[in-house]
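Appendix B, record 7
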Amino acid sequence: MYCAGLPAIRPRFRRRWFGLLAALPLLWAGAGRAQDALVGQLLIASTQITQAVFSHTVILIVQHTDQGALGIVINQPFEQKSIASLLADIGKKDDSVQGSIEVFAGGPMEPGVGFIVHSIEYHRVETQPIDSHIALTASTEVLRDMGHGRGPKKSLVAFGYAGWGPGQLEVELARHDWITIPEDPVLLFDDDRKKVWDDAMARMGQPL
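Structure tokens (predicted):
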């Protein structure tokens, strides 16, 4: 059973938006040794996954330790929202910001917690590199920078995450629930969200 196998929940904007993320790394404070082989990999849901919450999903793994794994779904956009209204929703009102962003449902766990995955050239003290192309930053100031034209060149804003307990993801991989490919910025940031799963599968030469 998936640790994240809960019904999909519409994300709710709360002031604790970065409360969990700010404790990176990560959900398991004091967890044992890291297992970095899967960090930066994309999990492509195989056709044998029939749960609605994970069917045809593509998930970026941002943490993998001996205590479990955490990933963010990259192909479930749910709302276009102005940066000003998003900052106001999380108690960081700034009427000087401009623009809007697409907000994603990153997974069914902790739907009030926000994540920003972005291109590697943007850096703050809180920035956590994922690989040589992308990073994750635990600060609402990313949104403010985006609203003032100082943000990352590419970004994905998501609420919630998919999580696995100790050894759970390894079991699912062994039974071929997921196919893995290296993270690709084109799939992550640029591809039509309706085509991400198809395009990821095509890169593996898998039948659709």
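Remarks on this record: The chain is about 15% helix and 30% strand. The radius of gyration is 16 Å.
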